[in-house]
Amino acid sequence: MSDGARDGELKALEKALAAEHAAVYGYGVVGGRISAGRRTEARTAYDAHRARRDALVRKVRDLGGSPVAAEPAYALPFPVPDSPAAVRLAAELEERVAGVYSDVVRATTGGRRAEAAGALREAAVRAVRWRGESVAFPGLAERDGAAAGTSATPAPTSASATPTA
Q1: Lower CB density within 10 Å: C or N end of the chain?
Q2: Which strand (E) or helix (H) includes residue 42?
Q3: Contact residues for 79 (Cβ-Cβ < 8 A; gap 6+)
Q4: Between vectors from CA 39 to CA 35 and to CA 41, what angle results, nearest 5°?
């Protein structure tokens, strides 16, 4: 693997790790607002994102990178005062994670590409379950009619730090 390809793979995995940190945080919010009937579904998704996050930490280290730490808090895309908003947030989290994994698919080969494709598929399926509808090309905002230029992950917030790209 060339240094350029390795660097591209590492950057894509680091972005996926950051997205998983944000998803874990977001599902903490979802879990606090979701109705009892969907709480198990939210917990399952939370656990899946924690497992992916932990696996990505190892992969980033294996490639010689320093895994990015989770932010203390993340800006949510909208207020989440009740269960319907929690459902919308869960769908949004999954769509954003799917977008990041589509970048990992493009940046990797072999086993890592297959794992990224699996993560993309899982996020897309969860998004459909939460939203109740699907898109033609999950993870590809330019293909599903979503507005171009949307952020792949919720923005981290901190009282003393400005988010970096």
Answers
A1: C
A2: helix 39-62
A3: 85
A4: 125
